[in-house]
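Re: duplicated header lines in exported structure tokens

Our pipeline writes sequence and tokens for each protein into one text file. With two proteins the header for the second block appears twice in some exports. Here is an export where it did not happen, for reference. First protein block:
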Amino acid sequence: MASIRLILRTTQADQSGHSPLYIRLIKDRRTKFISAGVKLKENEWDGAKQKVKKNHPNSARMNASLSQKIADAEGQIADMERKIKTVSINKLKEAIKGKEVPNFFEYAYSRCEKIKGSVSFGTYKNYKIYTKKFETYIGTKDVYFDDMTVSVLKDYMAHMGNVLKNGATTQRYSIMILAIMFKEAMKEDIIPEYMYPFNKLTLKKDSQKRVFLNKDQIEALTKLELKEGKKADLWRDLFLFSIYAGGLRFSDVIELQYSNYNQEEQRIKKVIRKTGRLHQFKIGKVAIDILNKYSKADAQPDDYIFPIITDKKIYNKNEEARFVVSSKENHSANFQLNRMGKVLKLAFPLSFHLSRHSFATNALNNGMRIEHVSKLMDHTDISTTQIYAKIISEELDKAVDNYIY
């Protein structure tokens, strides 16, 4: 037999001190909470008598309404338990609240499909992956927005850390995806703001230091003996090209077409994949030499300069196809580069993205103005570029300390 009781959830109090009142449903030692649609201050609720205190101006009307809700809920439970002997607590909850609060997973997966065309395929895929990750933890899709309490989310974070061995950054990202779904549902007035549990969570990031190749390490990589014409040689060239071409991102390097390069002006002009902005800048001798190494005299303007994308038709079919090809080639590049890094005895794994870090830190070290570095990297906000300036300052402090002591 299921039991019900009214509970004031003081752990969900808002800034004005009002907490939501819930109908607590217990069956087979399992508990579910259903919003009663009421918010009260702690001193306005008598938990023992299950009534709103008289110090609330509308206590009589509210008590009558709550009594009716409890009576209706008890009636629903009695009817269902009479009809279905093994009725689950989730079915009882659904029967009591009707359509008041939607199913979280139904909404989340539907939302993913709605935004599919307005975000990158990578973002769409991550939304689905991290929603599925939470579903796997919960073990059922029969979860409503008001089931996702602070305690449930804290238990999920503990599971990620202790069982899945996820770091703080991964935990944070996993929770943020769920929070996005809540915010979208709130914008659509599907759920009330007080159901949002994430502002009571503390989300941390792993402390990460951006690593890069210094001038000597870049020179060592350049001189590293590799078999010409092999994939390792190709990825080394593209990595170095990125360093000497403004830290151009991986997808933009492999997508570089002949029409993007003005040979007379020695200038690249391209719409950046990540930002969608038209970006143009001049490149120097090292980058030009690498371009010339792979350039073909009979190429068409829409041909790709570097021999990575072998089937233009498949690659340009849709965003998903581009994502799959780019991810596969990026994995190949990182595998080869990491092997080179081990030969060079680098203290960190070498990956293609470090070409971007290497450009920024070396450019600043060589005296380039931070505004120019920011422009070349196509940063939206110069504060992003300032991270590299901080690295330079830390390296300088370290050099001074080593010299003095």
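Second protein block, exported in the same file:
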Amino acid sequence: MNAAPPPAPPHAGERAPARGRIVSLLGSPFRPRALLEGAHLLLNLPVGIAGFLIAVVGLSVSGALVITFVGLPLLAGVLVLLRTFSHLERARARVFLGADIAEPDPVVPRAGGRGGLRWLGSVLRSTASWRAVLSALIGLPWGVFSFTVTVAFWGMGLGLLTYPVTFWILRANGEPGAGINVDGEGGGWVWDDPFELAMTVVAGLLVLLAGAQVIRGVAAVERALAPLLFGPSAEGARVRQLETDRAIVVDTSAADLRRIERDLHDGAQARLVALAMDLGLAKEKLTSDPEAAARMVDEAHGEVKLALQELRDLARGIHPAILTDRGLGPSLSQVAARCTVPVRVEVELGARPAEAIEGIAYFTVSELLQNVSKHSGARRAAVEIWRAGDRLMLQVIDDGRGGADPAAGSGLAGLAERLAAVDGMLAVESPAGGPTTVTAALPWRDRSAG
């Protein structure tokens, strides 16, 4: 018989992760990210000196000449130069700190006046220009601090870590008194035996480990401050967000117009053209074959009913009359009646919101109930709408199979974008196996305010 393998020592599987954590900790000062952050802090001093000199000299000279006609143009040139300097700082932060900082607000000349004067006024009024001045002025003291911290930890740590090699080189070159003088007065206790040299290695490693944490902390502070100094202002970021939202709204509106045009062309218009042709043929047969003409008129009557139904469906998709006349409760009850599963609708609003918000809420619920009908496999669903402070809240819940994910490129992603365009938001909770809960929040605006 084969001998059974010896039992594994207790907790053998636990030693490997612990050993891996120790190795990872010991290697932390030498990782690429730690080295890049330390290099960035070392570069802060020369970069800070350059920026400080540009700011102080430029502002001093232009300020002294401000009473002449060259003072303001020179000041604007200094501000542009510092903005360019900030551009280099953003690139440096991206390479060394991994911080992707957006471009600041561009200089946009205002309307009125001559081109050069408008550009000059825009540069002087730009908050990004003066934030570039601020970053240049505080760059020098911050550079001195970060440079000193990095040099202190790296210099002492590497010096202690590599001192045994230095010690052996000194001894090989005939320096009998080589060693680390502990009391610092040229005598007394000198570390020069193998055990003491090994302690210098341990001490150097501990200094490097502590320095890695300190350098990471200093770099994290700079990573947090960099967007405030070199990135867009809060107002500029808001403007860009609004521009993006406006583009989404325009694209959505254009898509809706194309859908309406397609539905009219392929649906009601085609039926009406066929109806006109049938009525023309019936008119020709009216005297020669009255029975055939009557059948054709009867068929045309059926086509008219279908065309009217298509037009009603199309009008309901644009803006249903019941929503305008009676509000969200009755209109959503009508939408729920068309759903393939039973839907409970609860609308608790003390007043009606603005027409635009009401319409967005209606079409959001309509699209979510369409998803319930097509994809969820649910047996029942519920729609709840209420007001919470300055928000109109709506929630659609179903007991279907779940697994809905806006990140998968579904219609939920487009719905979230359309809601975000009006400062709304969409949250989806849909674990595998269900249930699915979709919550949307829209800004509340009173109906009187539009």
